[in-house]
Specification:
The two termini are 27 Å apart. 47% of the residues lie in helices and 14% in strands. The protein has helices at 18-29, 41-53, 68-82, 106-134, 155-175, 193-205, 214-225, 236-246; strands at 9-12, 33-38, 57-62, 87-90, 137-142, 180-187, 258-261. The chain folds into 2 domains: 9-190 and 235-261, Rossmann fold (3-Layer(aba) Sandwich), CATH 3.40.50; 191-233, no CATH class. It is an alpha/beta fold. Strand 4, helix 4 and strand 5 form a beta-alpha-beta unit. It has a 7-stranded parallel β-sheet with strand order 3-2-1-4-5-6-7, with helices on both faces.
Length: 269
Amino acid sequence: MDLQLNGKVALVTGSSKGIGEAVAKGLAQEGATVIVHGRDRDAAEQVKQQIASVGGNAHCVTGDLTVEEDVAAMAVEAQRLGGAIGILINNAGGSGPGEDWGNASPQSWASTYDRNVIAALRVTKALLPGMRLAKWGRVINISSLAALMPPPINPDYSAAKAAMLAMTVSMATAVAAEGITVNAISPGTIHSAKLDMKFREVAFDRGIPADAPWQDVEKAVLSLFAQVPMNRVGTLEEIADTISFLVSPRAAYITGSNIRLDGGMLPTI
């Protein structure tokens, strides 16, 4: 299927690693010009070069999304490099050092909210006027299954990701008549570098060699981390493919939705 992304320009925040990196590479593979973003210039440049090495078109920008001036400068630079941005993936964010209800602090909650929700607001506010002018745009907010199945730990992260779902619906309703769609993605247990390391540590304690094939590690310890009906974790590529479709002209009638990539973990529709 041709996703008709040739000529589209996408900014993927937090795309120097992990989910963001996979999404940036996936969009570039579909023909979009991608603006790679991160706080580490070298890491962002590396992703940019990897995209270019397989024939993709990419640029990179840096900036701290919790700083208003950085976001304004980044938005200007991104559009100078790539042109008018019609696709925004609000991926940057993440959890903090880890808290529970015994040591939760207002300061850490505020920091997590700023890093996830307010950061996405800052970038969206900078780019949405251009999408409205063009009468076309796509915004994807990366939430988490933690927003829908909050665990007893990291409550600040679950709350922030839940706020991003509410933000998605509100924004989608506001711009639906202007050719702009806004959707959210809520990944469950995904095979990231961090997850790989955690799984292998536990597997090693259970007698699985450190260099064992991933399938052996996954089979041995997945049930200790999550109850996934599909009996496997998701992949970064599956997230990238889903987002590539959602931001394409092919998905023009999908807006205000939250797409769960959780292998069936959440027992509801």
